[in-house]
Amino acid sequence: MNPLKRFPRLNNLWMNTRHKVAHWRERRDRTVDYDTTVGNPQNVLFVVIDCLRADHVSGFGYDRPTTPTLDSFDGRSFSNATAASPWTFPSIASLVSGRYPHEHGGRFDSDPRDLSSEQFPTRPRSDVPTLPDLLESAGYETGMVSAIPMADKSVGDRFQSVDIKYTDATERVDTALEWMSNRDRWFLHLQLGDPHAPLDIPDRHRERFGVPDVDGLEDWRFRESTDDDEFEQYRDARLRAYDAAIRGADDELGRLFEAIPDDTIVVVCGDHGEAFWEHTDLERRLNDDPRGFYGTDHGHSVLEEVATVPLWVDVPTVDTGHDDTRVSLVDVVPTIAEALELGNTPEFSGRPLSRTADSATPVICEETGYGYNQRAVWLGEKKLIDVPETGETVWFDLGDDPGEKHPLDDPPAELREAYETFGMGVHGDEKMEVDSSTRDRLAELGYLE
Prior knowledge:
By secondary structure, the protein is of the alpha/beta class.
């Protein structure tokens, strides 16, 4: 047991030092083999709010004031963005590479999978370039500031510096502002973990959101069964606590946006959503979770509450306003490449968000972390979910059934054909490794047993 866990600030400092040393060792012999050019140089800021689902954004119609800062974001908002994966490790790799998990290789190499028992995925392939790789080769300084170690475990080695502390948005934004100061041309990835269990709930928002004093609210209860008289009370309280945590992260973005230089491209998104018992029975049909958890959390489903996330971009090539077109997080890097006029870059799977008028382009979410893998493909308002290992397949017409209450059999031919265009892809070069201290934090976050 780590004796410093009784002293959170000291433990965070110690853990961050360990991350930095490990990062230095990983990068000390690294060479940048790309020759990227930048025709229109600007700073780039990615902000990821972990576990942020699209339908809990107040600007998209949610009935609690969760995101007033983002509601007034000076850019374009997308209320139907699809995460490339329902958990952080593959999703962040897709966000910064512009490629899907089956293309960058940051995924499991076997089925079924059980992340909770330390069956780890392979890391993204070294020959798949990411945005920090490309921008570093063009002279940018690159950094990651994160409250979630899975982001670092996925692609932290692609950044010149990392700062990993398991702290709330206030501290993480402070660190981000310090990192940006006195730098000329930079790319920063900031990942906030407040809505990720265990929740960071600001005291000032407990009363605002009516968060009651209920046992186990920061984490999860009723994961195996909801047959209890207290369940509905707990579920309501847990949702209120989640919303209060979102608001806490949103609060800090105001001062972040005020401080960044004018010539900064800004992207804000969730890396995946979060489930609150919407589809417990359907999840049992589609999956055999080794933990016995259904209907909560993330990483074991590709249903809408986990797969659909909000996305905001402030990019000169993308018009301001709101857009409900189905897009993907793999579209972000091509959008940045277009805006910066990057030269000597690879092809990306996504398309620039300046070209979203064509809604017939299919997108995919894949690579669950528990049980058999599931893959979901959207084509317009039609959605297919396939479990390759078991042969289970269902589909939905989201236009008629946005809540996925009525799974259908026999998917239309065009939906099946769209799914088959993606193929099964490749795997990464090496397994993700975790030291004992990081293992403790991943267990606290619910990833490991």
